[in-house]
Amino acid sequence: MADNAALLRLTELICARLCHDLSGLVGTLSGALDLVDGASEDATEALALARVASTQLVRRLRLYRAAWGPDGGPMRPEQMLRLAGGIQGAHRISVSAEGLTQETELPSAVARVTLNMILLGAEALPRGGEIHVAGDPDDLFLRVVGPGAAWPSGMAGCLADQATATAALTTSAALQMPLTALLAHGLGLRLSLLMALSGGGGTAPLRLQAG
Fold first, then answer.
1. Is 120 in contact with 95 (CB distance < 8 Å)?
2. Rounded to two decimals, what is the model's pTM?
3. pLDDT tens-digit profile of 156-190?
4. 150 neighbors 173 (Cβ within 8 angstroms)
5. Is the CB of residue 165 less than 8 Å from the CB of residue 182?
6. What is the per-residue DSSP string for the chain?
7. In angstroms, rounded to a whole number, what is the distance separating the alpha carbons of residues 209 and 211?
């Protein structure tokens, strides 16, 4: 019963998160089309706004499907970065894949968790910044750099223990951290924070290890 309750809670939070993250873009698109339909003098500007909103909406949906949906298969860095264009705040957050050649192929499980790490990294950059992915498919590192960059409270515990991650499923706004941890636990991958590499008060890199 407890497992069923946790699954139901996770489903509810994902639904709430999707509605929250997509509603703004859908509202912008709808409003812009209303202006065009009314033959407003601002029709040209409204069409441009609608195109931007629709592009962002498609990108976000593709990212969420790859990160949260069924197995999408192996992925190359170029594909991963293209999907990362759908993150919230993409206009002020850059994502790079340092050290990963275009020939590198991330196994399906690694690719899914990495996309969730990127989503989590975007949340850790409230005022924008940079997300850097480096390493190799068996040992990846994600680093966030930017003003006010910080991982969510209690993250280390969630990464270390599945029960702690499940207990952290409290609100849709705080969904990404426990979801990333639970996905890694479920796929047999290990996520950890490298505190020793965060000298100078910076944000600890997030490490993903296969096996």
1. no
2. 0.86
3. 999 999 999 999 999 999 999 999 999 999 999 99
4. no
5. yes
6. -HHHHHHHHHHHHHHHHHHHHHHHHHHHHHHHHHHHHTT-TTHHHHHHHHHHHHHHHHHHHHHHHHHHSS----B-HHHHHHHHTTSTTTTTEEEEETT--TT--B-HHHHHHHHHHHHHHHHT-TT-EEEEEEEETTEEEEEEESTT--PPTTHHHHHH-HHHHHHT---STT-HHHHHHHHHHHTTEEEEE-GGG-GGG-PPPEEEEE-
7. 6
Q: Which amino acid, one-letter code, is at 15?
A: C
Q: Which two tokens stand for residue 63?
A: 């990212």
Domains and CATH numbers, the chain: 2-210 (3.30.565.10)
Cβ count near 200 (within 10 Å)? 4
